[in-house]
Every structure is written in C-alpha cells, then in structure tokens.
Amino acid sequence: MSNPHLLLVEDDMALAELVSYHFDKSSFRVSQTADGEEALLLAREERPDIILLDWMIENLSGIEVCRRLRRGNDTANIPIIMMSARGEEEDRVRGLDIGADDYVTKPFSPRELIARVNAVLRRVRPALAGETLTFADIEMDTIRYKIKRGGETILLGPTEFRLLRHFLEHPGWVFSRERLLDHVWGHDSDIEIRTVDVHIRRLRKALNAGGRPDIIRTVRSAGYALDNDIAEG
To answer: pLDDT tens-digit profile of 56-97?
Structure first.
C-alpha cells in the first residue's frame, strides 16, 4: 500500500516546513503550495488523499478553495482539514458548512495535527489506514477487494462493492437515492434514480444468499440504511 498523499496549502513558510517535516516522518508523501489557485491545479492533477488548507493564503482564500474543491467532480470527495488562527465558533462553523471535514485552530502541535489527519482518513478512507470494515457478520477488506459474510466469501460487482463500502463507512445512516448517486456514482453522473434500486437489489441478493437476514433497511420516503433490523421492502 502506498503512503498517503497530503497536499499542504500554507503561506507561512516556517510553519509549512515544520508541518511537512513531521508528516514526512509519519510516512506521508507531502506536496505543498502557498497559493490558492495552484492548490486547485495540484488537487486536480494528482488527486491527494487529504488536504491541509490554511484559511488565509495567497490569491484565493482557503474558504474559496474549499468551496471550489467541493464543487469539482474530481475533487468533491477529497477530505479537507482547514487550519486557521481564527478560533471563533462562527469561523469554525463556516469552515465546516462549506465542506471541510475538520477544523484546527492555530497554534497546534504537529502531533495533534497528525492525529486529526489520521482520524479523518480512518473515517473517510479506511483503505489508507489499512483497516477492514466490519458490520454485524460482514467483513470487507478494502485493499484486496474481498468481502465475507459469516466467514463465507461474497462476490460483488464493482458498483455493488462501492455501494456496500459506503454503507459500511456509515452504518445506521439513512441515505436517499440522490445522495447515494452523488457518493457512489459521482456528482456528474447522469444515471437515473431508479438505477440505485436495481443495484440495491443486486447487493441484497448477494449478501442474503443462503437465507441470511437482510441488513439493508428500506426507509420509506427516505432511502436506505445499513442496520440489523429486517428491511421493510
């Protein structure tokens, strides 16, 4: 497994060098820039696994960079942690509202920052943390693309694999068909909503083979969730 790629966007050169040094020591591959426009180009050219984004940078503010990344088809799902000396609740809420996954107030310790980055990666990109996703009797090896239920191998197509992975990363969450289209197929997808139902049926058929209980719950007028209740339909 390759080392996680971190894009650091910070115009304080001394701080950037310090942060880069500590992430290098922690086996990250670090790219860095002080420029908001260049950050957008770098994120599109070589999609990083996570972005550390300062609020106050050159050309474009960190807020605007975050907003544009979230709007881009290729960059919408890249985890972003915003860094700022602005510690007011209103600023933190604004950063999170425009799409940041976490918000770190300066000054911070490199150790805390690395812990925050690893926590976000574990949550949104478990394969980078080398983790197996589990729920009830389901196990998914996100690196080797293998799924087992009750110790028996389950064969899934690529779309069903991504769908199950998304559910396993958010157990108990109810996702509408529209949100599943965004997260699993992508923001630029022109696939019809009812296609989600088709793939849910395929996923259920594979997971429930041999009379196993259905752990994908249909929530009427809302969508689907992964939990231990018997599905309604």
So the answer is: 887 888 989 999 998 887 788 788 999 988 766 777 777 788
Where would I find the H helices in the chain?
13-25, 36-45, 62-71, 89-97, 110-124, 158-169, 177-180, 194-207
3-class DSSP state of 174: strand
How far, in whole angstroms, is CA 125 from its chain's centroid? Answer: 5
Domain final position from 128, 153, 178: 128
Distance from the Cα of residue 46 to its chain's centroid: 17
Residues 18 and 111 placed together within one structural domain of the fold: yes
pTM: 0.56
Domain coverage including residue 204? 131-226
Residues 192 and 106 in one domain: no
Does the residue 171 lie in any domain?
yes
- Phi, psi for 90 (deg, rounded to 5): -60, -40
CB 179 within 8 A of CB 223: yes
Pairing assessment for the beta strands 29-33 and 50-54 based on DSSP bridges: unpaired
